[in-house]
Amino acid sequence: MNDLIINDLYEIRNYLDQVVDYVKKIKDQKSLFASSYAETREHLYEIYSDRLDYSIYQGKYFEGLAEVVKRMKYSDLKNVRLSVIDGDKKSCFIFSSEDYNIILGIIFYDN
After folding, report:
1. Quick check: 19 and 102 in contact, CB under 8 A?
2. What is the rounded distance in angstroms from the CA atom of residue 5 to the CA atom of residue 11?
3. Tens-digit pLDDT string for the chain (111 aa)
4. Of the candidates 94, 101, 84, which has an alpha carbon nearest to the alpha carbon of residue 34?
5. The whole model's pTM is what?
6. Domain boundaries, position 32
7. What's the rounded Cα separation, in Å, for the pair 41 and 72?
8. Which of 48, 36, 32, 37 is CA-nearest to residue 86?
9. Coil, helix or strand for 85?
10. How many domains does the chain have?
């Protein structure tokens, strides 16, 4: 089930308005969003900006990481919700406003 959701999100990843609508439909599935928390935007920006620098240095790349870091840098949000969806083949991190009305981006990675 999670793999289907991750595949759907992957297909619409470049259309953040569609991602907002999709996430709003699935956000109440507690088992799906069991790992979700809010943190200050500055804190998450520092962490993922460092990971971006490290991944570039190491030659390892997580799809969507650069876009998320850029959007966090220029966002007016005070807090950002980080939600994890784990699949069998692929997983993703969704970065959003606390109420999921704004999606900053999604990082996808292979398991």
Report:
1. no
2. 10
3. 899 999 999 999 999 999 999 999 998 887 887 789 999 999 999 999 998 887 766 656 789 999 999 999 999 999 999 999 999 999 999 999 999 999 999 999 988
4. 84
5. 0.91
6. 2-110
7. 7
8. 32
9. strand
10. 1
